[in-house]
Amino acid sequence: MNAPMHDQEQETLILDMLDRFLKVEVLPHVHHLEHDDIYPHEIVEKMKEMGLFGCMIDPEYGGLGLSTLTYAKIIERMSRVWMSISGIINSHVIMAMAVQRFGTDAQKEYFLPRFATGELRGGIGLTEPDCGTDLQAIRTVAKRDGDHYVVNGTKMWITNSQEGNIIALLVKTDTTAQPRHKGMSLLLAEKGPGFIVSKKLEKLGYKGIDTCALAFEDYKVPVDRLIGGVEGRGLQQVLGGLELGRINVAARGLGVAQAALDEALAYSQTRKTFGKPICEHQAIQLKLGEMATRTQASRLLTYAAAEAFDRGERVDMEAGMAKYFATEAAMENAHEAMRIFGGYGYSKEYNVERLYRDAPLLTIGEGTNELQRIIIAKQMIERNRV
Predict the structure, then answer these.
(1) CATH code matching the domain that covers 123-232, chosen among 2.40.110.10, 2.60.120.620, 3.40.50.720, 3.40.50.970
(2) Is residue 56 within 8 Å of residue 68, measured between CB atoms?
(3) Section 23-36 average pLDDT
(4) In whole angstroms, what is the distance from residue 299 CA to residue 157 CA?
(5) Fewer CB within 10 Å: C terminus or N terminus of the chain?
(6) Which positions are catalytic?
(7) Which fold has domain 8-122?
(8) 123-232 against 236-383: fold identical
(9) What is the pLDDT of residues 173-204, one digit of tens each?
(10) Closest by alpha carbon to 256, among 159, 165, 332, 177?
(11) What are the tens digits of pLDDT across the range 61-87?
């Protein structure tokens, strides 16, 4: 099921509401929550009230039914203020979309209304200690035992796993299948006996949000929680979600790139050297010009990928381009902002050092940027065979 086409009036209302929320409820608390690595419980509750956890869920299940383009703009705005809260939304939305696109009617009717309100909130469990980019190498196994699957294995870098209560869990239901993806399935795994959050992971940036290692020890999942009701389709279900995830990460990169530009531009107009604001020095103008161009190019790529997704097109190349370029733009802009700030950019008193710590994650998460370039090239060749 694809997102509805773009509704400009609805988008304007929602983005105006979001901007007020970010200014009043988020911005004053970012510095404290970020540097003390505190989960933003009150902010999340307000996000529930605003319906953001159901932003792309169809209205018939209680969601807002927003287009992917509007969703990307929401994530962009969040990331300009505090990237961590955008991650709380993203993993949950990918899980919800897996159910909306591939779930049985019973699964949609039971789970989607609860996902939309945030009553059930969580993410996706893909990565393992020895498996990231190559998802077919996962080792977590789910064996059928009557009307349950018994799950054993470990997962790593799972967002929303400590504070949330459900995960779309990628498992092997047939360890002998060839090709390997035919033995992979996606289970809706609610917390219960054998579902163990083994530790919260300490990170360079992306603070405040819960990113954890998980262990599953004879953990039981009812058979009717197999997304779609048919084994062996898990990888395809996940890859569809990763296209949306990469648009999200591109939007995050865009938000961080824009924030770095905003910080640098404002500072360069107040900081003076040699009798004039540093924005009047050509060396600084060269940096600002590059930062602004990278940001706008990221915006165009990200919005184009979101619009293509809304049209129901295959967008692995477009999402890969947007994710690759926008996240590299975030890295470069954060670095240049720090150099424009000079010594102050290295201080925790300013936002620039947070942007500098947040940006590297984006080049790794939802598929490394090395992988994105390979996807782009392969799709370009496939679409232009001579």
Answers:
(1) 2.40.110.10
(2) yes
(3) 96
(4) 27
(5) C
(6) 366
(7) Butyryl-Coa Dehydrogenase, subunit A; domain 1 (1.10.540)
(8) no
(9) 999 999 988 999 999 999 999 999 999 999 99
(10) 332
(11) 999 999 999 999 999 999 999 999 999
Sequence ranges of the domains in the chain: 8-122, 123-232, 236-383
> Which CATH architecture does the domain made up of 236-383 adopt?
Up-down Bundle (1.20)
CA-only gyration radius of the chain, Å: 21
Strand-pair partners of 277: 272
> Could you please report the per-residue DSSP string of 273-311?
ETTEEGGGSHHHHHHHHHHHHHHHHHHHHHHHHHHHHHT
- Rounded CA gap, 45 and 62, in Å? 17
With CA atoms as reference, report the closest residue to 74 among 52, 99, 44: 52
For the stretch 260-313, pLDDT in tens is 999 999 999 999 999 999 999 999 999 999 999 999 999 999 999 999 999 999
67, two tokens: 């287009």
By C-alpha distance, which of 249, 268, 101, 83 is closest to 168?
Answer: 101
Query: Residue 168: beta bridge partners?
Result: 124, 188
Query: What pLDDT sits at residue 135?
Result: 83
Cα–chain-centroid distance for residue 356?
18
CA distance 366 to 60: 29
